[in-house]
Amino acid sequence: MAQYILYSTWGCHLCEEAEALLIAAGLEFQVVDIIDDEQLLQQFRLHIPVISADDNLLYWPFDQAAVGNWLETIKVKESK
């Protein structure tokens, strides 16, 4: 099963919205603040919030439907 990560940073209102969507979806996830890691900061600086599951990334903007579709895509990949 994939490990879900929300790439975020403190004070980002979009990141707070993304976190609320993931909670509403019942997803267990880890929040990683990109400010603590230079590589992540360079990779996601202009793109947060970003949800990650292994090599599968979902970039903002997304809504509950987009999160659901993304999760289904991951489940299909995992079942192969």
Fold and architecture overview:
This protein is of the alpha+beta class. It has a single domain, classed as 3-Layer(aba) Sandwich (Glutaredoxin), CATH 3.40.30.10. The chain is built from 3 helices and 4 strands, in the order βαβαββα. It has helices spanning 13-24, 38-44, 64-79; strands spanning 4-8, 29-33, 50-53, 56-59. A 4-stranded mixed sheet has the order 2-1-3-4, with helices on one face. A hairpin with a 2-residue loop joins β3 (50-53) and β4. The longest helix has 16 residues, at 64-79. It is globular.
**Strand-residue proportion:** 15-25%
Which fold name fills CATH's third level, the topology?
A: Glutaredoxin
CATH class: Alpha Beta
CATH architectural label: 3-Layer(aba) Sandwich
Average pLDDT across residues?
A: 93
User: How is the largest sheet built, in terms of strand order?
Assistant: 2-1-3-4
The succession of helices and strands, N to C, reads EHEHEEH
Total beta-strand segments:
4
Q: Which structural class do the helices and strands define?
A: alpha+beta
Radius of gyration: 12 Å
Compute the separation of the termini in Å: 12 Å
Helix segment count?
Answer: 3
CATH superfamily caption: Glutaredoxin
Indicate how many domains the architecture comprises.
Answer: 1
Q: Flag low-confidence runs.
A: none
What spatial form do the alpha-carbon principal axes imply? globular
What's the story with the biggest beta sheet?
4 strands, mixed
User: What percent of residues adopt helix (DSSP H or I)?
Assistant: 40-55%
